[in-house]
Amino acid sequence: MAILGLAMAAFILAAEAAAMASAASLVTFIFGDSLTEVGNNKYLQYSLARSDYPWYGIDFPGGKATGRFTNGRTIGDMISKKLGIPSPPPYLSLSKYDDALLTGVNYASGGAGILNETGLYFIQRLSFDDQIDCFKKTKESIKAKIGEVAANKLCNEAMYFIGLGSNDYVNNYLQPFLADGQQYTSDEFVELLISTLQKQLSMLYQLGARKVVFHGLGPLGCIPSQRVKSKTGQCLKRVNEYVLEFNSRVKKLIATLNRRFPRAKLTFADTYGDVLDLIDNPTAYGFKISNTSCCNVDTTIGGLCLPNSKLCSNRKDYVFWDAFHPSDAANAVLAEKFFSTLFSGQPSVAPKPSP
What would the pLDDT profile of 118-172 be if each residue is shown by its tens digit? Predict the structure, then answer.
């Protein structure tokens, strides 16, 4: 559960902040899965990882489904609003000539993972490799608009938010009928994830990414889709141990890349403790229920909130919206918690397109 926890991101902007104009707007590029998607998969005709139908979006402005995997807003939406910038649009909604490319893009795709085989049974999704390819095309479009020098500057000064890894476990390794769970031990699997991620982060660096926040995984063993596998309905300790090992390895990888790459400012945002506290102590945050979801989902057929699903009477009482994703209310708590430490100064400037 790679919930957007950005509490460690602030220092990235500190050195540049003093020189930025007060009216500057942040350029952000977002890579991720269903926790940060804002609608890419609804443009994939055969994707089974979709949320562009009721009851998703019931609490989003307008009350309609947008492709976000929650009843309302993502944490990214909320933080963008606080910053006074629009939430970056889904990549697949834009043309290569769109001026919106200059102010940030969201490449996140439900079902996506670090590994290309992750989420295979969703038929269509943008894996992390696919998302990086999309960013490469974005940079070419930006270069055509404002020139190579300005494009390189934009990409160097932009912020990159990455939240991936949940599906590599939930929709890959932990599925007994898929090959990776049979082929690898847990140690071998995390090694595969880290070696693949190293190549992917290196590619982003080559494409111009300098200020990168990688969001660690939350306690996946405590999300509703995993709790139902426990006879007592408790968190799955083994799954959470996998997550902690993954987070530890990513943190070490980030440190290694910072030493290796000049001017790289990568950071690991550890969200595990914050999310676990919200789940373990829901009443402290104004919630009543954190062990099951507001939407009465069928975990035997995926765990998403289908149009014929029954909703809870008070959506603000629940930490989880469906078997995988936090509710709008939970996202609001986490966004508020993290926002004050996100940015210590003014973000980087988004240039205007050439006439």
Answer: 999 999 999 999 999 999 999 999 999 999 999 999 999 999 999 999 999 999 9
70-119: pLDDT as tens digits: 999 998 898 788 878 899 999 999 999 999 999 999 999 999 999 999 99
Can you name the residues that pair with 211 across neighbouring β-strands? 159, 265
**Is 34 one of the catalytic residues?**
yes
Report the interhelical angle of 128-146 vs 148-157 (nearest 10°): 140
Q: Which of 324, 331, 319 is nearest to 294 (CA)?
A: 319
Q: What is the mean pLDDT of the chain?
A: 89
Decide: 130 and 117 in contact? Cβ < 8 Å: no
CB-CB contact of 171 with 119 (8 Å): yes
225-280 confidence digits (pLDDT tens): 999 999 999 999 999 999 999 999 999 999 999 999 999 999 998 889 989 999 99
Cα-atom radius of gyration of the chain, to the nearest Å?
Answer: 19
127 is known as an active-site residue: no
Give catalytic status of residue 87 as yes or no: no
Rounded Cα–Cα distance for residues 17 and 133 (Å) = 30
Residues 6+ away with beta carbon under 8 Å from 148: none
Catalytic site residue from 141, 180, 325, 328: 325
Whether residue 295 has pLDDT greater than 60: yes
Catalytic residue among 25, 33, 34, 293: 34
Please tell me what DSSP assigns to residue 172: I
Whether the predicted pLDDT of 9 surpasses 80:
no
Q: Give the contacts of 47 (CB within 8 A, at least 6 positions apart).
A: 41, 110, 111, 122, 123, 124, 125
Residue showing tokens 């001026």: 99
Are 69 and 303 in contact by the 8 Å Cβ rule? The answer is no
Backbone φ, ψ for residue 340 (5° rounding):
-60, -20
CA torsion, ordered 323, 282, 250, 124, to nearest 10 deg: 20
Catalytic residue, candidates 33, 322, 327, 348: 322
Tokens 């989880």 appear where?
A: 320
SS3 annotation, 32-55:
ECCCCCCCHHHHCCCCCCCCCCCC
